Amino acid sequence: MTRYRPFFLLLLLVAAVVLGLGSYFETSDDEHFALLFSGATAAAPQAVLAQYFHGLGHGLAAAYTLAPLVPWYGLLTGLLLLGATLLYFRVLHQLLRPHLRPGWLLGALGVFFLLGWLEHWQWFSHVRVAALLSLSGLLVLAAPGGRGRWLPGLAAVLLGCLIRPSAAGLGLLATLPAAAWLAARAGAGWRAAQPLGAALGVWLVVQAALSLTATPEAAEFRALDSRLALALDYQLTRPQPRTAADSLTVAAVDHWLFGADTLVNPAALDRLYRFDARHFLTHTLPAKLQLRLTLLARDYFPLLLALAVAAGFSLRLPPKQGRWYWLTQLYFGAALLLLAGVLKLPPRLALPLLDGWLLASLAALLEGRVFTTWPRGWRIGLSGGGVLVVGLYLAKIGHRTQVLRAEQEHHASRLEAARYHRWYDASFTANYFDHPLPLPPLVLGGADDLFKSLSPFRRYSLGPRPVLLLTGWPAHEAGPRRLLRQLSELPAQLPGLRRLAQGPFGATPRWLLSAEVAPVLARQLGGAPAFRPWQVVSEMGRSFDGGPVWYSVNPQPEH
Questions:
Q1: What pLDDT score does 555 carry?
Q2: Where do the DSSP E strands lie in 381-504?
Q3: Distance between CA 452 and CA 467 in Å, rounded?
């Protein structure tokens, strides 16, 4: 039983986070994926996404078809995150076991989970899962463990690549130094390079397979996605509109209205958005670095302090090992600055990077045996400082839990109220028995924040009616586009929305739009239909104050 104590400890800690503190989606993307796989925002359960969950989507779509009330998306990603957790801590346990007594070893694992892993379970994201699977898979491949390590290691890397190849690639880069230290201990020469080559080979094979098997629809999505990422995520390109049509495109991009192919397409973005080196170096780069590095220090001060302490101990390393250690620090420092200043460094990427950084530093220090003898004063000082840091971080976790729980309750209540909002009007009721019609759709635009902070392990529903997404990355997936074509019987988005707005027999859609998106959408539709604020109190007695509001449409005939 002693050998399984770390395993049971991890299960207990994970259960404490999920059941006690709660799990919350970090972004709206994950809930949107769940809605697509279940068919709630698509013409049918969508098994294939252009850049995510390759192969796994078929199983999710089938599962939602069989049992639509089960939160299959959260269960699958949670199971995969549990696998990544067990693999990572297996390697950490192997590193620490020769140096700590059993009780102290369990305590060290618990502290590391609290400071460096708890957020992965509380702030849920498929990006974290993909990065951590590839990270932990490569660690297991590189660590000593015989032939039995190959199957779980390669499987973890493969699953990470299938979920999101770009995030899996970052996970491999984040663990490369630690894997190199571990592989050098486990073997010599080309044998030490085998794990690294195998993991990289899996990533390259998946990338090649996705490129060779991409449908024209998927290729178009990726082309558009890469250009939008340059403008919105990385802020590397700036718009330079010259005409009124250009201004419509820029407004659509700024408000994440990507569905109108005539406005938002790769050719239009290539023409309108350009890299301005002077503006980037003098304004964008300093602002991004200041924001991201400030947030990094605020959110991950325990890990940064641990890295600072490790740097102090590294002075006791032999000269050759010391040089390799500081090369590792430069590697991670450059990666952090590149992501923070040039690309993007949200929490779902920052913490996996820091996890890899800390493990690489720890592996180097343990290899150099710098902890064998150190003054009693150091022990007392570090122990007291460690207790203070843990206490401060526990207070931070408590505050974050309160904020996320309040957001979850607010967003869930808004979605519940939208579900029970009246879906008919007088003319629909008068004509229904002579002309039976399906329920009119719910059209969402600028309401993506309502899908943030929701629980991965709860199924949310907007009712039996079709739900059409207009904003956000998932809005230009194939599923919402097919749904609009099915509802309007027109191939393009803007003509389809005009036809939907007219609504046969008064069965017009219910438009839940933000105050910023509504005028932009009205401009795209050529001023017709006109969106007018509609003061609504739901049947559950909750008024829609702030955020997205209901809009009615004054339909005008098509020309």
A1: 53
A2: 442-445, 467-469
A3: 17
